[in-house]
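In this section we walk through a basic example: taking a raw amino acid sequence and producing a predicted 3D structure, encoded as discrete structure tokens. The instruction is simple. Fold the sequence below.
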Amino acid sequence: MSDTSPDPPAPTAEEVLEGEKAPVVVFDGVSLAFDDRVILKSVSFALLLGHTKIILGASGAGKSTILRLILGLLKPDAGVIWVNGERVDGMSERELMRVRADIGMVFQEGALFDSLTVRENVGFKLFEETKMPLAEVNRRVEEVLGFVGLLEHIDKMPSALSGGQRRRVAIARAMTAKPRLLLYDEPTTGLDPITSTSIDAEIIKLRDLERVSSIVVTHQLRDAFYVATHEAVADNGAVRIEQADRSKCEEAEFLMLRDGEIVFEGNASQLRAERDPYLLTFLS
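The resulting token sequence is shown next.
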């Protein structure tokens, strides 16, 4: 006897976005304008778990605005935004605080508290916003500083650190609460190439060893391609950064903005193969 039972109904968009395999971030037709100045025009993209989205574009193209929308610091005029399975575009400030607890943010200049030690900076969120015992906070701070190679500087003031070290402390602070999503706003701006590569390595390590999803806003093409085409490999307690294979490279996607619109989305190989005059000018 044949089975004539009806097929189960297809999942709704909300069920897909709230499922276990849901994208970490989804923008669906997001637009934003300040008076007559259009910042974003119907922007749509998705960031998958453990993947990287690298946002490129000229100054004023809307790159950092996307980060502010994810954090709920701005509200879109149109469209829908999902973060870690929750729709955030209509949330209240109280609701957003819960969502932000699962997001780490690395600002362009590091934004450390000059009056606090490295230990206090890195543990600030746990000290101030949780009831975690002090001994546990200190253990976590030491763990993340060890991860970025700065444990020996734990009791120094930020003024005693180099620019690259301050940026790595900022990354440690962003990861202390074990967020599923890390946002980087121009993380290598103002740094020399060697120091920039050390920052790129930390971004790669967090993605590949901690499975942290990441969005990197940058105009530094060298760093963007380095993050997209390399991977972190743990080997007998040591970590090395090496050239990624093709499938791994495809997990890092570039998103190019021009005047608030997406003009390219794809992996490093696809971007390099582009013949669009605007993209060629930007990449030259």
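Looking at the output, two observations stand out. The two ends are 66 Å apart (CA to CA). The longest strand covers residues 37-47. In the next section we compare this with other chains.
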